[in-house]
Amino acid sequence: MKATEVPEIAGAYLFEPTPYADERGFFCRTFDADVVRSVGLDPHAFVQDSVSRSVRGVLRGLHLRSGAGEAKLVRCSYGRIFDVVVDLRPDSPTYRNRAFFELSGETQTTLYIPAGCAHGFQALTETADTSYRIDRPHDPAEDVTIAFDDPELAIPWPLPATSMSQRDREAPSLADVLKQKES
């Protein structure tokens, strides 16, 4: 497994495993504490694992947490997703940068998203399972959502959004979210 910095988002990494394939299918390590530690992250900081299943066109996000934020490891364990990260850390050298990835069950690549970054994704296949490992327990009172179609972000979603939560459909613009943070 190798770790690669994401140039568009300071502190973000891609963890790319080495799958071993044969006539039975494949095997790969999807988490390695030593590799995570090698880039300065504490592998023991992650306290909760979750998984979502989405169908083609489902869009989830853009989500982040207020307060101390939430760092996460995201991996598409089955299918393919278009994954988006937006750096919303005012002190970051990559503040307001965006980065886009295609994550898939074929590669099992994991994306590390630092606390303070917004995250969202869209399912590209009929079924897409996305696994999350987060660094603190979820508190719904800290949930923040930003409009997926905010013109300021101009995210090039590859498919029309076929389904999303009411919270995501009614999300405010980035400008409105940033104003709320300032008050």
TrEMBL record:
The active site is at 63 (proton acceptor), 132 (proton donor). InterPro entries: RmlC-like, RmlC-like_jellyroll, RmlC_Cupin_sf. Residues 159-183 are annotated as: Disordered. One of its GO terms (biological process) is polysaccharide biosynthetic process. Gene3D superfamilies: Jelly Rolls (2.60.120.10). GO terms for molecular function: dTDP-4-dehydrorhamnose 3,5-epimerase activity. GO terms for cellular component: cytosol. It comes from the Bacteria. It catalyses: dTDP-4-dehydro-6-deoxy-alpha-D-glucose = dTDP-4-dehydro-beta-L-rhamnose. It is an enzyme of class 5 (isomerase). Keywords: Isomerase. Transmembrane segments: none annotated. Pathway: Carbohydrate biosynthesis; dTDP-L-rhamnose biosynthesis. Its EC number is 5.1.3.13. Belongs to the dTDP-4-dehydrorhamnose 3,5-epimerase family. Catalyzes the epimerization of the C3' and C5'positions of dTDP-6-deoxy-D-xylo-4-hexulose, forming dTDP-6-deoxy-L-lyxo-4-hexulose. Homodimer. PANTHER family: DTDP-6-DEOXY-D-GLUCOSE-3,5 EPIMERASE, THYMIDINE DIPHOSPHO-4-KETO-RHAMNOSE 3,5-EPIMERASE. This is dTDP-4-dehydrorhamnose 3,5-epimerase. It comes from Streptomyces chattanoogensis. The lineage of its organism: Bacteria, Bacillati, Actinomycetota, Actinomycetes, Kitasatosporales.
